[in-house]
Automatic annotation (TrEMBL):
One of its GO terms (biological process) is cellulose catabolic process. Its EC number is 3.2.1.21. Belongs to the glycosyl hydrolase 1 family. This is Beta-glucosidase.
């Protein structure tokens, strides 16, 4: 009987499996005006009235910039073997151009040294959505030059940290950067131009390719270069041909637009057809696809919940329960006649359905899509309405069950032949959750936002035990 169906059976992982947690710079660092850092698009967006819940910002966040030593000590106490964090571009290269600010680089040097001293492997993400505002003022990701500025930035960081950091990720979830940032406007910079979002997607792809090449030009050959995609598991509401076609269209916009050029050197022809009313793709220049199609050492997959879609009448208002925030503008350019439905089942505080089978499905898809390419789950986790109990503890059995289910799905995929080498829990600690402000808690570590005191939740202890033993404790063993 498979492990997921028999919780009494120990779910064990390969000895070399990497157990980590993840964060991103703007969500945790704070110190937004210190040591030469200048505004990113998220500073501007969060300070724009009405853009974030309660007008909350990342100005202080959880003050990781000043508390990183304590945070690393907490990771070590929990038994984590790896930590994935992102670099704040505007802390390192404030205008997005020119020389680096050494004080900014020094922070990341200190962080990496602290991790290595605790025997925790650092994994660097170069871009987690916080474009320097000056580059957005010059046109942002819809402009080709931004991709070349990213390559310059990648080289700067690679030169500074490449001797000590072996795992590198160019971009985190470029889908969100392109389509939530430039189509639906629920993320920074808050633009609502579907044609511009497709241009942004291409230039993010180009930035990945140029950035990967820049990293490899300055780093030891032992280092690995990857990208983290929030590839969607897109399911049709029925087997009706119209619903199947709707699912295929969303699959192109969610997945093919990125993995097509990155893994195969081509965009899906069906994507060109579906978006012909918005763009002629004339910004895809000769040689671009070769630049994007750099060999990868690994692929990062971020997974939270599947999508359920059907065909709809484009002239009528259609439901869009896609889990990507409320907006009058769709993040799905060229798909106004596709309806998104809430999938059945229990949900997290984000309203996202809990479905570990989607993670297994995603892993197996990319095992077929890119045979021989190692996979990492670079984000997976859940938000719940966590509270500190009268005993000073934070009990979150729902998150423990969530992790057990999804890690069991990972182990089942490994048993089915997938080369999954690690898992990064999202997130290490509660933080600024983008347009939701501080209202959604994804952390394994509870943060009291008034005092910034950290308290490991039950899930943190449970996950730490899994990391130390390579086996999943029973859900009740918390």
């Amino acid at each position: 009987m498979p492990d997921s169906e028999n919780p009494a059976t120990a779910v064990t992982f390969p000895p070399a499996f990497l157990w980590g947690a993840a964060t991103s710079a703007y969500q945790i660092e704070g110190a937004v005006r210190e040591d030469g850092r200048t505004p990113s698009i998220w500073d501007t967006f969060s300070h724009t009235p009405g853009k974030t819940a309660g007008g909350e910002t990342g100005d202080i966040a959880v003050d990781h910039y000043h508390r990183y030593r304590d945070d690393v000590a907490l990771m070590a106490e929990l038994g984590l073997g790896a930590y994935r964090f992102s670099i704040s571009w505007s802390r390192v290269q404030p205008t997005g151009r020119g020389p680096a600010v050494q004080k900014g680089l020094d922070f990341y040097r200190r962080l990496v040294d602290e991790l290595l001293a605790r025997d925790i492997k650092p994994a660097v993400t170069l871009y987690h959505w916080d474009l320097p505002q000056e580059l957005e003022d010059a046109g942002g990701w819809p402009e080709r030059d931004t991709a070349y500025r990213f390559a310059e930035y990648a080289q700067i960081v690679g030169e500074a940290l490449g001797d000590r950091v072996e795992q590198w990720i160019t971009l985190n979830e470029p889908w969100c950067s392109a389509f939530l940032g430039y189509a639906s406007g629920v993320h920074a910079p808050g633009r609502t131009d579907p044609a511009a979002s497709l241009r942004a997607a291409h230039h993010l792809n180009l930035a990945h390719g140029l950035g990967a090449s820049a990293l490899r030009s300055v780093m030891p050959a032992r280092n690995t270069v990857a990208v983290s995609l929030n590839s969607s598991v897109v399911r049709p509401l029925s087997q009706d041909p119209a619903d199947l076609a709707a699912a295929a269209r969303i699959d192109d916009l969610a997945n093919g637009v990125f993995h097509g050029p990155m893994l195969h050197g081509a965009y899906p022809e069906s994507l060109y057809v579906a978006t012909a009313g918005l763009t002629d793709w004339d910004y895809v220049l000769d040689g671009d696809l070769e630049l994007i199609n750099q060999p990868l050492d690994a692929l990062g997959l971020n997974y939270y919940t599947p999508a359920l879609v059907s065909a709809a009448d484009a002239s009528a208002e259609v439901p869009r329960a896609d889990g990507h925030g409320a907006s009058d503008h769709s993040p799905w350019p060229g798909a106004d006649d596709v309806a998104f439905h809430q999938t059945p089942g229990d949900r997290t505080e984000m309203g996202w359905t809990i479905d570990p089978t989607g993670l297994h499905e995603l892993i197996m898809r990319y095992t077929r899509e890119a045979p021989g390419l190692p996979l990492y789950i670079t984000e997976n986790g859940a938000a719940y309405d966590d509270k500190i109990d009268s005993d000073g503890r934070v009990h979150d059995p729902e998150r423990v069950a969530y992790l057990h289910g999804h890690l069991s799905a990972v182990r089942r995929a490994i048993a089915d032949g997938a080369d999954v080498r690690g898992y990064y829990l999202w997130s290490l600690m509660d933080n600024f959750e983008w347009s939701y402000g501080y209202g959604k808690r994804f952390g394994a570590v509870y943060v009291d936002y008034a005092t910034l005191e950290r308290t490991p939740k039950t899930s943190a202890r449970w996950y730490g035990r899994a990391a130390r033993t390579g086996a999943l404790p029973e859900v009740e063993a918390v």
